Amino acid sequence: MNSTTSTDLEQNEWLINDDEAVAEELAAAAELASGQNPWNILIVDDDVDVHVVTKFALRDVRYKGRPLNFLHAYSGKEGLRVLRDARDVALVLLDVIMETDHAGLLLARQIRGELDNHLIRIVLRTGQSGQTMEQNVIVDYDINDYRTKSDLTTQKLFTTVISSLRAYDSMLAAHQCAQAHKRSLASIKELRAALDRHSAVSITDADGRIVYVNAQFCALSRYAPEELLGKDYRLLNSAYHQQPFMQELWNTVAQGLTWHGQFNNRARDGHHYWLDTSIIPLLNADGRVHQYLAIHTQIDQAGQVT
Questions:
Q1: What pLDDT, on the 0 to 100 scale, is given for residue 26?
Q2: CATH number of the domain encompassing residue 266
Q3: Is the pLDDT of residue 13 over 50?
Q4: What is the pLDDT of residues 264-295, one digit of tens each?
Q5: 3-state DSSP call for residue 104?
Q6: Who is most buried in 30, 184, 212, 285, counting CB within 10 A?
Q7: pLDDT at 132
Q8: What's the rounded Cα separation, in Å, for the pair 172 and 135?
Q9: Do 275 and 300 contact (CB within 8 A), yes or no?
């Protein structure tokens, strides 16, 4: 911990807000305007010299063509305020002892808990050393790296920052992919619900065994789901269609092409009914058919929707 008082911080404010710092901020703003969004790094330390030295050591660093943008906080409480307002911070360089002996550890816990931010990388920097403290901090506070200030040379600081940004970038990409997948699943669920309301739907595996039927399909066939699953469409065969008709159907879908036509089926109670049917092959990652999706609409013998 540095004994710098708030008065000292005000007197030393020129160390950060000098002409060179202003020029760097203007350059960062210009790069942001050009589409090169910087990596936001938050320095949380009550020693103003740590802010100045860190910013100077990393002033020319770029990762993936993007510059670094530094945010500053001088206490754990101030760091929390900054993080509430700036959710795209990639890395926090965090002092342990500031306004209290455990201010940095409290902020680390608030980042993971209160802010529910598990993407941001947290590197703890402290003037105190000790293997026992290091192990406890890493395990209990979800810290991504731990360094003593005396050990953190310019080269080690560079390595720490780049490895942290690389990890953040990978985790962010995975998180965004997971969110996109989640949205896709929600959209599929909505589409399936809409389809189920409109049509009878059945799905078979590549061998023609039924693996899914919706309520409308069961209502038309008069079969319960458990009576259909694992069976093939011969259960519904009305003997109306001749072999060439069925052969043409399977030849079409086996090639990965959609088949469309009219079916005459026999329900469980023996009555016949007509369906306007589209059978769509579903392909796996290897481009092979692994399922067939059939969408059915009930029609009369003249082909009119009933």
A1: 55
A2: 3.30.450.20
A3: no
A4: 999 999 999 999 999 999 998 888 899 999 99
A5: helix
A6: 212
A7: 52
A8: 26
A9: no
Range of the domain at 55: 6-180
Residues 123 and 270 in one domain: no
Query: Identity (one letter) of the amino acid at 193?
Result: A
* Structural domain count, the chain: 2
Q: Would you say residue 1 lies in a domain?
A: no
For CA atoms 158, 159, 160, 164, the dihedral sign is: positive
pLDDT at 30: 53
Is the separation of the CB atoms in 83 and 106 below 8 Å?
no
Q: Which candidate, 275, 196, 199, 197, places its Cα nearest to that of 236?
A: 275
- Note the Cα 141 to chain centre separation in Å: 23
Question: What value does the mean pLDDT of the chain take?
Answer: 86
Is the same domain home to 147 and 231? no
Q: Please tell me whether residues 169 and 53 are part of one structural domain.
A: yes
Q: Is 265 exposed, middle or buried (0-12, 13-18, 19+ CB in 10 A)?
A: buried
Residue 160 has pLDDT above 60, yes or no: yes
Contacts 24+ apart (CB under 8 A), 277-286: 279/249, 279/253, 281/253, 281/254, 281/256, 281/257, 282/203, 283/256
CA distances in angstroms from 4 to 16, 58, 176, 209, listed in the order given = 15, 23, 41, 75
